Amino acid sequence: MQERRKFSRINIRVSVGVMVRDLGDRVFIGTLTNIGSEGIGLLINTFLPQGTTLFINFELQEGLKIDGIEGQVIRSREAEDKFFSAVRFITLDAELKRKLEIYVGSVLFLKKIKPFSTLSDEEAWYIRKISKEVYFKEGQKVFEEGTEGDAFYIMINGKVKIVKRNPQGKEETLATVKEGDFFGEIALLDEGLRSAGAVAFENASLFVITREDFKKVLDNNDMLSHKLLWVFIRTLSHRLREVDKVMADMFFTPIKKGGDQGEVK
Fold first, then answer.
1. Nearest Cα residue to 10 out of 38, 30, 36
2. Which domains are assigned to the chain?
3. Total-model pTM
4. Does residue 140 carry a pLDDT above 80?
């Protein structure tokens, strides 16, 4: 019976440098096909027998690099006119392992958000690569109404209030966003000013994607850009329907007067 994996992994493609000690320190360039905190899947043009010791180098994202980590082949087979090897990390320290677990988990988290549920691991990883994780304390402003919008936010945890000032200058809460929600997407499509503000209702962690980085997606990844634009169109359509419903309730709900319901004046 095949051993069940006890750790999460994502299926992505990254160039990997491999030095094989058992082959006289020969260096190969392969392709990472999947990764978890315990090891990787490696596609390479050389067969590596079970037990082969190698040293691995690749970069997942700026600031997260696997450099000279020792690994051991636990199984190999032919695949895609090359050879696939499952490699287990041997010398991965606890801190780097923790970072990998968090990173892989963050990619899988993006795929659990309903609008992004159709993304592949590779596409979700691309989104994760261009996003930055930011933190806000309770009461801290994420952005203010009337300021230039230049970024889109995805809630990791905590809550954020979307607020707007009424004609009397009093701040009113329009909505509360929580884990798995996103907001500010209009800023990626329109260079106008923010129509509302956002304030941390409690301590919150968010992914932020700038308009500049989103433009890179549009320019370099047609399939992903089409998916994301469709997500935003559907979301905006849904939110407009919600606004229409609120406006309809506001203007067409009869008002009680003298015990009777009358027309709205």
1. 36
2. 12-101 (2.40.10.220), 131-251 (2.60.120.10)
3. 0.78
4. yes
